[in-house]
Amino acid sequence: MRLTLHIWRQKGPKEPGRMVHYEARNANPDMSFLEMLDVLNEELTLKGEDPVAFDSDCREGICGMCGFMINGVAHGPRRGTTVCQLHMRKFKDGDVLYIEPWRARAFPVIKDLAVNRTAFDRIIAAGGYISVPAGSAPDGNTILIPKPVAEQAMDAAACIGCGACVAACPNASAALFTGAKIAHLGLLPQGQPERDQRVLKMVAHSTLEQFGSCTNIGECEAVCPKEIKLEVIARMNRDFIKAS
Amino acid sequence: MSMDLSSRVPSGAIERLWDKARFEMKLVNPANKRKYNILVVGSGLAGGSAAASLAELGYNVKCFCFQDSARRAHSIAAQGGINAAKNYQNDGDSIYRLFYDTVKGGDFRSREANVYRLAQISVNIIDQCVAQGVPFAREYGGTLANRSFGGAQVSRTFYARGQTGQQLLLGAYQALERQVDAGRVKMFPRTEMLGLVVIDGKARGIVTRDLVNGKIESHAADAVVLGTGGYGNVYYLSTNARGSNCTAIWRAYKHGAAFANPCFTQIHPTCIPVSGDYQSKLTLMSESLRNDGRIWVPLKPGDQRPPNEIPEPERDYFLERRYPSFGNLVPRDVASRNCKAVCDEGLGVGNNGLGVYLDFADAIKRLGVAVIRERYGNLFDMYERITGEDPYKVPMRIYPAIHYTMGGLWVDYSLMSTVPGLFVIGEANFSDHGANRLGASALMQGLADGYFILPYTIGEYLARTKLDKVQTDYAEFKREESEVETITKRLLSIRGERTVTSFHRELGKVLWDYCGMSRNAVGLKLALGKIRELREGYWHNVDVLGGPEDFNQALEHAGRVADFFELAELMCIDALDRNESCGAHFREEYQTPDNEALRDDQRYCYVAAWVFKGANQPPELHAEPLKFEYVRPTQRSYK
Ligand SMILES: Cc1cc2nc3c(=O)[nH]c(=O)nc-3n(C[C@H](O)[C@H](O)[C@H](O)COP(=O)(O)OP(=O)(O)OC[C@H]3O[C@@H](n4cnc5c(N)ncnc54)[C@H](O)[C@@H]3O)c2cc1C
Ligand code: FES
C-alpha cells in the first residue's frame, strides 16, 4: 500500500517545527505502524536525510515508550491499542496521515515525535508508592484481599504511563494518570496508611508540573490504550476532598 | 592478569550457607553509609530494586537507564509470572523442590549454592511485593492465587494477569521514586553507560552519554552495579525490547570482567512467526498457551489447504507423539528444537513455511469459548492485533524465537565480577539458570539479587576494602572519556552505503543459522568467518547520519551493534569449545539415539569464563568447575 504522510519535524526543543510531507510507498498491511516508519527511516537514511525521531522500546504495548498523534488521535484509530501494536491493515491504500508529537506544556518536544515525559516520574515520586523498605514485609497471605478488589486495583494499575491522556485532553490534565495510581494504591489495604498524604502530595505536584485541571471531558478515557476508566478520577477527587 | 575464579561459597550444609555468609560479613557503620557512592546501571527488576534498597539503607545512589523513564525497563514486558516456594497450595512444594527443579532444569550447569539461596529468598520476594501493593491474582477467599507454569508439577507461580513483569517493575520503580524524592537516589534517564573506569584494579566509575544532547560525562563511585539485562538482540530478532543490548557488560568485559557461558541462549517455542523482512521484533505468546493448545503440522509436506480443512488423520501432533507423558508441555528447549525440526523437513506452515499450528479447537470444544476467553483472552487479542487472524476460529501459528540469555558476566557468590567493586545482577550476570532457564524464574532472580542479596554483599565489600577517594578529573576517567568519544566519532565519520539496521539484521541471521537452536562445529567455524567479514564491512561501510551532540537514535543503535559483532564472535567461540549438548546448547554432534541433548560431565561440568586479551587476540578460557553434592546429575527425560 501507498500512504501520504505529513510528519512533524523539529530539530530540538528550542527550534521551530513544521510538517514535512513524505510518501510511504512500501507499506504492507501486516506491518505495525512503527515498522512502516522504520522502513521510511531506512529510505531517508539511504538518501542522506535525517531519519524521523520517535520513541519505542517493547513494541508490545506495555512499556509506554511509544506514542504520537495520528490524524489528531493519540495512538491512532484503534481503541485500546498503542501505536506499536497498531497495524497497517487498519488503514487504506492512499490514506493521508498527519503525525504529530504529544502536545502539552509539561511534555516539551525533544526532537520530532519524541517528547520529555519526566514530569510523570516526578508525580509518582511525590507520593505514588507505599513506604515499605526491603525486608520489612509480613507474609503475603496475612493481608487478605477479596478477588474483586484485587481485580479493580489491577484495572487501575494497568496504566503504562504513555501520556496519551495528557495529549488528548484539551486542558493537558494528568488526572487520569494520577488518578490511576491513587486508585490502585487506595483500593488496597496496604495503601491505607498513606492514603490522605498520597493524594494531597500527588495532586499538588501535578499542578506544579504545569498540567491543567480536569473538567470531566473524557477524551483521556477514549484514547487510553489500557482503557483506564474515568472512575479513577472520581475516586481521586473523593479522596482529595476527604483528605483536605 | 591472573584470574581468580573462586566462587567464595562458604562451606557447610547448603541450607545454612546464606545465613552463615551473612553472619560472617563485615558491616558498614550506619552513620557511614551516606559517605559511600554507588552507581547502579539499569532500572529493571534487578537494577531498580537494588537502587531502591541501597538507598533505603542510606547509601548515596545514582541510577541510569537508556529509556525516558526507569519504569520502562524491559522487565515490564514479562507476562507469565514469578516463582516462589511458598507452598500455599499445599501441593508438596518446598524450597528444596524449587532448588532441585532449577538445578535439573538448568541441565546441571549452575552453581548449587546460588540456586539454593535463590529458592530460599523466593518467599521473601512475594511478601515484599505484596506489601508494596503489587495486585497479584487472588482467590475468592482473598488469598494469593497460583498457577502451574512451564511444566512444573506444583503450582508455585504468582501472577498479575498477563502483566506480572509490569506490576513487579512498577513496585520497584515506585520504591525507587520514593528514594529519588528523599534525595538518596539521583536518576539519570536517557543516559547510556559507554565505559567503565577501573583504578588500582577496582571499579571506580563509569562514563555515560546523555542521549538527548550527546554530552559525555564521568561518574566516580566506590562501587558499580550493572543490572543491564540480556543480550538476546544480538540475533536482531528476539522477544526483547528494541533497545536491549550488551554494551554495558561488553565494555566491562573489555576492562577485565570475565564473560561466562556466552553461548547459553534460550529460545522460546511460542512466538508469533516473522511476517516479512521489515520485521522489527518478535512477540512472545505466553507459555501458558501450551496448557490447552495442541501443536501440530500437516503430515504431507507443502500441504496448502487451510488448517481447518486438514482432517485429523493427516495431522501430526509431533510433541504428543514423541513425548507421550509430557506432550505439549515439554521444556522450552525441547519444544523449540522439535518445532524447528519439522519446519526443516518442509512441514512448516504459513507463507514462509516457518511456523507450526497451536490449535485450541479441542480445548474450545471441551471447555467452551468462555473459559478459553477467560484464560487467554488478552493473548488471543494480541495475536489478532498483530496477525489479523482470529485464534478462536483458526489455529494460531507459532515459531520459536530468541528470548533470554543465560550467559553474562561471571560473578561469585557475592554477585561480584572478576573486577573488584563491579557487581552484576539480573539477566546481565551468568546467574543461576545454568544452560536453560525455567519459566517464571528470571523475575525471581532479578528481585532476589536486587532486594535481598546485593544490599548485603556490597556492604561487605565496602566494609573490608580500602578505597581512596577518586575524582572524575583523574587520568583514568579522561582516558575512558576519550575512548568513548573516539568510537562515536569513528562511527559518524564512515559515511558508507549501508544502514546500521541492515548490518544488524545480517549479523542476526548468521547467528540464528549457526549459533541458534542447534549448532555444529562446521557451522560455527563458518559463522566465525562470516561475522569477522561482516564486522570488517561494518566499520568501512556503515552510514550513520547526524552529529555527536544530537538526539541521534541511529548513533545509539550503531554503538550497540558494534559491540554485538564482538559478542557474537565470543558466543561462537564458546559454543565451539563446549563439545557437548546441555540444556539450550544443542550441538548436533552430541545427541542421544533419540535426539536428546547428550551432556559430557567428565569434560564439561564447568562454567566457561572468558577473559579479554586485547583486540584481535583470542580470548582466554578459565573454567570454574561445578560440583553437585545435592542433586545428582542425570539425563533429563520427558518421554
Ligand atoms: C517478552 C518477555 C516475557 C518474559 N516473561 C517472563 C516471565 O513471565 N517470567 C520470568 O521470570 N521472566 C520472564 N522474562 C524474562 C525477564 O523478563 C527478564 O529476564 C528480566 O526482566 C530481566 O530483568 P533485568 O532487571 O535483569 O533487566 P531489564 O529489565 O532488561 O533492565 C535493563 C535495564 O538496564 C538499562 N540499561 C541497559 N544497558 C544500559 C546502558 N548501557 N546504560 C544505561 N542503562 C542501560 C535499561 O535501560 C534497563 O533499565 C520475559 C522476557 C521477555 C522478553
Ligand atoms: S513501544 Fe512499548 S508500548 Fe509501544
Q: What form of chain A results from the Cα inertia axes? A: elongated
Q: What summary fits the major beta sheet of chain A?
A: 5 strands, mixed
Helical content class of chain A: 25-40%
The CATH architecture of the largest domain in chain A can be given as Orthogonal Bundle
Please tell me what the overall shape of chain B is: globular
Helix and strand composition category of chain A: alpha+beta
Largest interface: A-B, 77 and 79 residues
Bound ligands: flavin-adenine dinucleotide, FE2/S2 (inorganic) cluster
Tell me the radius of gyration of chain B: 24 Å
Low-pLDDT residue spans of chain A: none
The CA-CA distance between the termini of chain A, in Å, is 56 Å
Oligomer: heterodimer
Quick one: CATH class of the domain at 475-620 in chain B?
A: Mainly Alpha
Strand content of chain A: 5-15%
What is the annotated CATH architecture of the domain at 475-620 in chain B? Up-down Bundle
Look at the structure and give the mean pLDDT of chain B.
Answer: 96
Overall description:
The complex is a heterodimer of chains A (244) and B (639). Chain A contains 8 helices and 7 strands, in the order ββαβββββααααααα. By secondary structure, chain A is of the alpha+beta class. Chain A folds into 2 domains: 3-111, Beta-grasp domain (Ubiquitin-like (UB roll)); 118-133 and 142-243, Fumarate Reductase Iron-sulfur Protein, Chain B, domain 2 (Orthogonal Bundle). Chain A has a 5-stranded mixed beta sheet. Chain A has a two-stranded antiparallel sheet with strand order 6-7. The longest helix of chain A has 14 residues, at 33-46. Chain A is elongated. Chain B has 639 residues and is of the alpha+beta class. Chain B contains 16 helices and 19 strands. In chain B, the strands form 5 sheets. A 5-stranded parallel beta sheet of chain B has the order 5-2-1-9-17. In chain B, strands 11-15-14-12-13 form a 5-stranded antiparallel beta sheet. In chain B, strands 16-10-18-19 form a 4-stranded antiparallel beta sheet, with helices on one face. The interface between A and B is large, with 77 and 79 residues. Bound molecules: flavin-adenine dinucleotide and FE2/S2 (inorganic) cluster.
